[in-house]
Amino acid sequence: MLKLDRTYSSSGNLFEPKEEVIPYLGMRKEEIAKVFAYLNSVSFNYTLGHPPKMDKSVFSMRKN
Fold it and tell me: For residue 51, which of 61, 38, 60 has the smallest C-alpha distance?
């Protein structure tokens, strides 16, 4: 069984920002959204700007 590497990330606190957040502190919300969209496209393997459609048949309910 794989163990969680607890040294990779820390929880941080209210007064000191985490190392992962520092590059994004000077960005506007629109720039952060573009970075988020790019990272999602890479992690879920789809082309940027063309996300896959959600399969809504999973959420369908039968009427009585």
Answer: 38
